[in-house]
Write the structure tokens for this entry.
Amino acid sequence: MFFVNKKTVFPILLMMLGMSVVWGGGNKEDPSRNSSLDKAVQASAKTIETKLPQGAKTAILSFAASSQEFSDYIIDELAISLAANNKISIIERQYTDDIRKELNIQRSGEVSDDDVKRVGIQLGAQYIITGSLVDIGDAYRFRVIAINVETAVREASASLSINITDPQVVFLLTGERQPVPNTAGVQTAQNGNSGKVYKIGDRGPGGGFIFFAEGRMYMECSLNLGSFTWREAKTVASNYKGGGFTDWHLPEKAELDMIYHNLKKKGLGGLFEEEYWSSSEYSIYSAWHQGFSFGGQKWDSKGDKHYIRAVRVF
């Protein structure tokens, strides 16, 4: 007869998922399998979605971190992930922001039980979600909890370790971009970096303009590819094959902002004073874009048309 040892199967399943998730605490993660930031957000959202009742009216109040940009990003991404399956009802950010301002609660700060109760009552929410990012030395600890407004009981929680060198985390906390090295088994020469040294504004191997250059790691953006809706833009950018390369994509918010500051503001790259799409979603109906006349970022309906540039790392 075949017996299954649950203590053995559970760690194996976690390894297959490529991350270490603590459901309620108590297990120590293997640092070699720390999660990426996006996976931490998705795993946390899944945990909360599983634990809360169907249709629970929920508000995402705050995420404590050393950077307001980091907190804003996590709150927005959690809202997108939690709203995706329509299992729980997420209160629109504008309403939560209004109450937060009225009660002088920072998005990037810690909140008290009294804050949770007051916000929940004013919003008519059944649950309030808060979280934090904690530096634990060789990694960051990413924590998210869902609190029952009526009972003040934590009814769902997720806790994961994130690589301290994760490029997204570094950029959101410090503003410094650290492109991910090529780990897909592609030789450096095949990816377009044959040892040549580039600087900002140079033409890259894919025919685009270099907008990041640090430590022999580079990013380039294509020429203007036209004006499209957001979904069309993602497809056009990923199908672009400038220089024969197939690793182009629509830039994230942070990448688009780097293009603005490192190219447009310096008169490089032939960029229009128009709106450009990013790949970053605001909600299931809207996504972020950036105006290249003054550099402001805001969200628009995914059905609207904006200009695009494709980007790649090498």
